[in-house]
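Weekly puzzle thread! Below is a chain. First person to post its structure in token form gets bragging rights.
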Amino acid sequence: MALTASLGTFHHPGISRIDYKALDMDRVLTALLARLWHGGMPSKISRANTLDVNVFVKLFLQHPEVFESFDRETTTRWTSTHLLDLVNRGKATEAVASPRPLHGFTYRFRNSRKSRPYGADEQLYEMLAENEGALKGLREFFFSDVDRSTGEITPGPGTDVETQALLHLVQQAGKQMQDRPDTSKPRKPYPPLCAEPAQQLCQDVMRLLYHQDHMPRTVLVDYLKILFAFHLSLYHLRMLKLLPTVVEAGAGSAACRAGHEGEETADRCPYRVRLFLDVEGVPGTPAAALAEHSAEIWYRQISRFIQATYQVKKLDEFSEHLALKTTKLSYPAGRNYFTPEEALQRLGKSYTKDRDAFFLQRVNRVRDEEEDLPAELKQITQLELSPFDEYIEMLMHYRGRYYRSYFIDCLDSMLLKHRPGALLAQPRGGRSGGSGTARRFVLDARLLEVLLQVSLLREGDDETGNLRTAPMRVDEFLGLLRDRYGLYIDQLPDTDGFSGAHLDDQAALRSNAKAFLDRLREIGYYQDMSDAYLTQTITPRYTIGTEATTGAGA
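Winning reply:
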């Protein structure tokens, strides 16, 4: 039986605004740029035609005064390989999604049907809204040469060639399109179930933007995409643990809502993510086996997360029914929606009669649409569950596997599987989950570079609040990865599928730590001085002193 739309709806924006489809971070960032320009709302572009490669090439060739000595063949190659994000590249169905998101106005050249962010842009924006400094820093970086009041563009002397080309495209084609905020989709700022992930994202974004005068723009944009994907994945992994517990308790933790601002052990979030990473990246090693076990533990929790999301969503629909169809409930002051915790209040005894009547009607609709109930549903009906619990079990029977599959694809893409900056690896053809095809957590060199950039910044001694780069001992950095991000390399977590390291694990941990030093050496952050821990030092790639004034806070 195919559930009707009203019965089978699943997503709740108070949990995640993502539509749980495989994400492409170029397209997510492109859509985020529109929200940065329009104060959180998506853009509404009025344009005559769908843009293809030839349209961009034609714009270049029609303006030789700007693009001097551009011939068609070279321009076509350069445009398609360096400037544009293409879907189905090299195939008959190849099409332009958008220009690469090197400048804020690239979203105006997006073909929306080919460049879907699936809600990840909204999720990122609402997380970044936790700290206005992060939003301001991103706006200033991506729209640095745009006059906010007039929209005039003035490229700076250090603008790279790709960004120069995009800026001239905006100037030449800007009059042929209309860009305005889509007011039909206003913001709904749901309070987060745990504020810590958003706070960490904002802090890392501001620290990464501190390097904008010290590294090429294209490199910094790539780092931002990796950082966004990294924090999106950590957020959703945390939700795998947090949401089922919140549903069972009927409410969230006050410390989670506050963001665990203290540094004491008592204020550490109990739902923090802890992952063991295979640094060497070679399947079949003891470290890889531990990383596979770590990934298996987390992916095994997805089904319970799907069920908990369904519970929140259906209680939210019940709350809307009470607010719109009866006088027994009203929306909170100033908004027309309920938070997940408010929806869970409908599990209270005072709502039992109305809740049973509402969900019994839905259970009967499901039964009426089936001529012969499947054996599993017959077993469910014999358990004498409450109408709400029976309805949730029916939804999980019909749609649970479907949404689990899409969530796995989405989580894989946020973990950048098979892409630069990956936190997850899986041998090709590994969807079946057979021997030798298991997922495992890894530490790709590009992700390591990003984490080093944000971690090697310290507050200066001049009390100005500005940051400076400073060397860090390897053991200190490994401790920072564990404490801040839950990434374990030379130790095993004491939870999340582990109970500490056994004797057989010690050799694997030593090998993993050695591979970590080798990886640092490969990317140019570490040179051998001594085997002693105190002299194993990571050296920053870019030297930033306390005179830096990009506005990023510590």
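Puzzle host: Confirmed. Bonus trivia for everyone else. The CA atoms of residues 102 and 163 lie 6 Å apart.
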